Amino acid sequence: MTIIQDTLVQLTPSILGLASFVVGIWLLDAFLRKTDEPGVDVESCLRAGIKILQFFGMAIGVVCFATLFSLLTVPLLSPIYRDVLTLVLLGLLGFVLLIAPIAKVPWAALIALFVAIIASGILVLVSPLIIPILPFNFTYVIIAVFLITGILVFISLKWFEALIKAFAMILASRPITFILSIIGIIQAILLFLQYSGGILSFLPI
Q1: DSSP codes joined into one string, 78-127
Q2: CA-CA distance, 100 to 168, in Å (whole number)?
Q3: Which long-range contacts link 7-10 to residues 24+ away (Cβ below 8 Å)?
Q4: How far is CA 27 from CA 31, 147, 172, 195, in A?
Q5: How many domains does the chain have?
Q6: Alpha carbon distance 50, 43 (integer Å)
Q7: Per residue in 152-173, pLDDT tens?
């Protein structure tokens, strides 16, 4: 048991409520964009605060997963927060907050570039052994290895990047984020009020 885990578990309602609020903020941001009209400065009222919260969205997502891990690994610390709904909400909210910005990164291209550079660098290191036996310019070999490695890795990872974007589109869709936000906020309030199980405590299960 660590001080960090103890703190995260004790702050579970706050973390859950904050994550739910930030996910809900995405809907407000989309609404403001639709309601912007000439002569009505809607952005100056809320947009700045929204952008700040969205900027810290990934960090909050990481905190959600850290809290989830702490709840699962330290079960006796605070059993009131270990109900199934709270655990599921922390996982889903953390995933939504992380995957939305991650999906915007061209991972296939970046990883392909990195691998191609590494492959070319290794080739340069062993060049003293290769150059004497080559009948043509060594530069052509480096270019060929760079291009072939980069293209193969890019093609291999492109499906994975498309899969991440598909998940992001589903989980970050307005109906999903709205439902997660509302349920998460209600659950956080009930946990603040010390209702063990939160929403589940009101269900005839």
Answers
A1: -GGG--HHHHHHHHHHHHHHHHHHHTTS-HHHHHHHHHHHHHHHHHHHTH
A2: 5
A3: 8/63, 8/66, 8/67, 8/70, 9/67, 9/70, 9/71, 9/74, 9/77, 9/78, 9/81, 10/78
A4: 6, 42, 10, 28
A5: 1
A6: 10
A7: 999 988 888 888 778 777 777 7
Burial class (CB in 10 A: 0-12, 13-18, 19+), 173: exposed
* Distance between CA atoms of residues 128 and 178, nearest Å: 61
Q: End-to-end CA distance of the chain: give it in Å, rounded.
A: 32
* DSSP-assigned beta bridge partners for residue 40: 37
Contact 53, 94 (CB under 8 A): no
**pLDDT band of 98, cuts 50, 70, 90:** confident
pTM over the 0.90 mark: no
Cα dihedral 158/160/164/165 (nearest 10): 20
C-alpha 92: how far from its chain's center?
A: 10
Cβ atoms < 10 Å from Cβ of 96: 26
Phi, psi of 37 (to 5 degrees): -130, 155
Give the structural domain span for 80. 3-202
